[in-house]
Amino acid sequence: MESAAAARTFTPRTLVLTGMIAFAVGVRLLIHFVPGVLPWHFTPVEAIALFGGAYFSDRRTALIVPLAAMLVSDLIIGTYALMPVIYACIAASTVLGFGLRGRATALRVAGYGVAGSVLFFVVTNFAEWAVGGTEFCRAGLLPCYVAALPFFKTWLAGTLAWSALLFGGFALLGRSFPALAPQPARA
User: Origin, by domain of life (predicted)?
Assistant: First the structure.
């Protein structure tokens, strides 16, 4: 027999949310393993974090699912030195997503997507500069940020596009399937 807590955890809503995130992670793997299918850095990573934060009723689950999805895909793609920094940014973006709970309008989602992307850009490129990762970063902090601007542009475009797909798709599904209706948030 399953416990009441397990029954609450595996609701149709949770399964659909997890499935949507799994799909987005699949896209991340596709971008990595099929060059040219989508621009490099046009990933759903930021959107996954915001979406998880906004829609998983349990905050721990909201943090764990996007981070676990990243870990699984990173184990397939390969690990890298800045993983702790990247994961901290994903966790921060998930926490940002908590601010969208019950308030996820298109404008708010876009604003939070921009905020999360800027946070990711500033923190990860500072970390890249701090470890002297590229010749641009070894030349100084400003050249490091300038060299990363094209990647930021693609990251931001990906965040906004994937956020529209995830948030918009879930809103459309929610209209047709009452079981996907928002649930009260739990700590």
Answer: Bacteria
